[in-house]
Amino acid sequence: MNTTAALCENLTHSQIKEEEIQTKKNKYQEFGITVAAGNGDGHRLNQLNWPKGIFVDNDKSIYIADSDNHRIVKWKLNSNTGEIIVGGNGKGYQNNQLNYPTNIIFNKKNNSFGISDRGNRRVIRYFDQNQTNQKIIISNIDCYGLAIDKNGSIYVSDWQNHQVRRQKQGDTKGELVAGGNGKGNHLNQLNSPTFIFIDHNYSLYISDTDNHRVMKWKKDAKEGIIVSGGNGNGDSLKQLSCPCGVIVDHSGHIYVADYGNNRVMRWCEEDKEGEIVVDGNGYENQPNQLHGPVGLSFDNEENLYVADKWNHRIQKYEKI
After folding, report:
1. Which of 3, 144, 265, 308 is the most buried (most CB within 10 A)?
2. Which of 37-46, 128-137, 148-157 has the lowest average pLDDT?
3. pTM above 0.70, yes or no
C-alpha cells in the first residue's frame, strides 16, 4: 500500500472512530416538559418548594426531596399532583417529620428509601411508606448527597467536614472514602461537597461545589482526579459555577447540573471542556429555560430529568 493510500485509510478509520464516539452521545430536546409541579412555590399537592434530589423508578414515577416543604413526594407518570410519602407534617424531628431534606435514594434489595434529612443532621432509612417504620442509620452529620452501590452500601457527602463517607450494611461507624483533609482545592481535598454518584466499578463522582469542579475518586484512592470544571468559577465550556447534581450514563459521560450557570453540562473524562446539554437561556420559567438546576436523574429510556429549583418544578428532556 502506498503512503497516500495508508494515510487515507488511517483517516477513514479515525473518522469512523470519531463518528462512533459521537453516536454514543445522547441528544435531547431543547424544550423541557414539566412533569411535576410548575405551579409556583407552595405546599399544595400540585406544588413544590425548592426541589433538590430526585430519582425516577422503572414506572417513571419521580421521587422528589421537596426541601422547603420538609417532605418527600412521589409524582406518578402523567399525574397533576404528587403524593406525600414521608414528612409533610411541618419541620421537625419526629418520625413523621423531616427538616430540609436534600436527597433520596432507593435500595432495590430491601425495598427501602434512604433520605438525607439535612436539617436534622441524619440519614434515615424507611423500609416502606409507613412513616413509623424508620431507622436512623447515620447521625450527627451535615448530610447532603446520597448514593448507593450494588452491594447496598450507602455513601453520604458531609458538607461541613468536606468529605464523603461510606456506610456498609451492618456497620455503625462508617468509613472515610473521599476528602477528609480539610477544606481546600488539592486533589485529596474537597470544599463543600454536595451531590454524589457511584458507578458499577465503585468509582465515586463528587460535585465539589465550592471548588467549582467534579471529582472522581476510584475505589480505595487517596486522592481524586478532576473530570469536570476545575478552572475557577465561570461560564466558559471549561468551567462550572457551583455544580450540584451529577450522574453518569452507560457510556461513561458525566452530566452535571451547573447551578450557577442555569444549565446542564456533559463531560467526557479526558475532555478539557464540556458541552451544553440543556441551556438555561436566561434563567426564567419557559420550557427551554432553567433557573437553578439541582438534582438530575435518568429514566429507563435515558430521558433526562432536572430538578429546577427556583422554578419549583421538575423538567423532563426527552432523548432524541
Report:
1. 308
2. 128-137
3. yes
